[in-house]
Structures are given as structure tokens and as C-alpha cells.
Amino acid sequence: MTKDSLAPKLKRSISSAAEPPGRNRAAPTAAITVEPELLIERILTLEIVRVTERAAVSAARLRGGGNEVEVDRAAVDAMRRELKKLPINGTVVIGEGERDEAPMLFIGEKVGTGNGPKVDIAVDPLEGTTLCAKNMPGAIATIAVAEGGTLLNAPDVYMEKIAIGPGYPPGVIDLDAPPHENIAAVARAKGVQPTAITVLILDRPRHAGLIAAVRHTGAAVSLITDGDIAGVIHTAQPNATGIDIYMGIGGAPEGVLAAAALRCIGGQMQTRLVLDTAETRKRAAEMGIRNPGKKYRIEDMVRGDCLFAATGVTTGSMLRGVRFHGEVIDTDTVVMRSTTGTVRRIETEHRQHAKFNL
Q: What pTM does this model have?
């Protein structure tokens, strides 16, 4: 099942072989050629779906086993194996950690065949490691691919975040404004009272004050234990998810991946790296961060064209989890592109299991 909000532009050329007089001509054959600016999408859209599918299936076969290290390793191994096959010259800018901390998919690692476009890669092979290990809802495998040099090279630190979906006037939210002002602004833009607004927040002790402040306005709080990439994406479909605003502090790598998704489907997001120690400021400087207090918008974190894909590992409000039944493995994936605004939902039945290295 595929949903195209903007179908790719295709040029059709009709050709037919000359026929002898008096004979019926064969029906002309239609050849489809792709405009050069859409070539990356045509090549990579389905390819990155395979990347997240492989990671999701590998993690899903271990879900509920309680071993977070094992499920994470399975997803990372599978994603890296598939990334190496892509026809790209890729560099991991958001990965499993810095070179001395992660054996695979570390920041700066080269992926792909080397023959193809130069691209930045951001990955979270298993967002919601705990969710998968405990077989709880909402674990996903994610990737973003962008033009080379256009993704924020963020260190693995915390990040302040606020996000809303599309359809609002520019500047409705402000990371530096108190919660009651942001909630009131979104409520006014929607034409509702603050009591009709729902704010999604990670359930962490550090957010106790934020949760109390949001509830004081009369707005509802929806808490999640993990998964703030999906949490931010939820704001893009408030009628389906019930979420209007995302607020709080989460991981910076997840923030960049979420920004890539919103760049594709629309929305507003502001973030700031939490660099509150000399060590984190040093790491950030080594990665090119010159202004430690900078407030980032989506266009600062994802400056060029990008693709984003996510495959469900365990069933959640965004995607269905991997299903194993008989000889078939079912996967549910969303893939999107920023330039066209295309969002595709891909439900796949896999019958050849060898490709998953299970």
C-alpha cells in the first residue's frame, strides 16, 4: 500500500519499431525516464526501506527476551550490513556513538559502495531498545539520508526540544518561552482553549517541573517511557495521535532524526544542545559546534534535501510491528522525502528469509 502526496514527475517517451505495410502495428511501448533531480529519490527511496526493514526484523526476533544489549546489537549489525550495499558514498554523522565508543555505525564511519552520491547518514537502528527487550509498544528502526554536508553533526548529548506539526503560522512556538506561553500560542492558532491541547513529554525525573507547569495551564500531558523520534513525529498528525506539542529534553541524535522527518512532512521544531560541562563543550567543539548556546531550527539541523524512513519493530501508534507467521514476515514502513513532500506507507510480505541472516 503506497500513499503519494506528491507523485514523482516522470517523462514518458513512446517508441515503436517500423512495421511493413499492410501489417498491424504492435502497441507502442512506453519507456519511463526520470528527471535528473529525482534520480536520488528513485534510487534510494526503496533502498533505505530495505535498510530499516532488515534492522527491524533482526531486532523483532529477539523482542521480549529482556536483553537490551542483544536486541540493539542485532539491529545495528543488520543495518550496517545493508548500508554497505547501497550505491552511495555515505558518511555516518548521527550514529551509535563516537569512534572510540561504538564498534559499528560510529560517527564518521563510511558506508555504501563508494559509487554514488555523497550523502550524510543519520541512524537509530533501534529506537526504544528497552521497549523491544520488554516487548512494549513503539520500538522502531530509523534512518535519514541527506545531501552531503547538510545534516547537523551533533554529539551524543542531551538536547532541549519543542515541536509542533504543520499548518501553523511561522514562529508559533519558542524554545525559550515558558510552557504556558507556548501552549496558549498553539491553542490560539488552533482556535481552541488550552484545555484542548495535549503535550507529549518523556517520563523522566528531570521533567517533573515541566509536567507540573503544563498541567497548571489545563493542558493534558501524555507521557512516554522511550522513543522521542516517534514522539516528535506524532505532532504531525494530531487528529490521529491526539498530540499537539512535543516538549522536553532528549537525545541530540534523536533530535536530528526527528528534524529530518518534520522537514519532510512539515512542522516547526526548535532545539538547543545541552552542553553543561567542560567535557561536553569540548566534544561539541571537536565536531564543529562553534556556538554552544545556539537555538537550532529544522533548517539548521537539516539544510538540504533528505529522505527519512522508519520500520516498526513493536506495534505502536505510528507503525505496526514485525509479524512472523508461517513462511511470511510482514513489515510496516513509512518513507518520506523533503523536496517533494512525498510520504509512502509500505506494507511488505517477505517470503525469502535468507536476506535477513536470521
A: 0.86
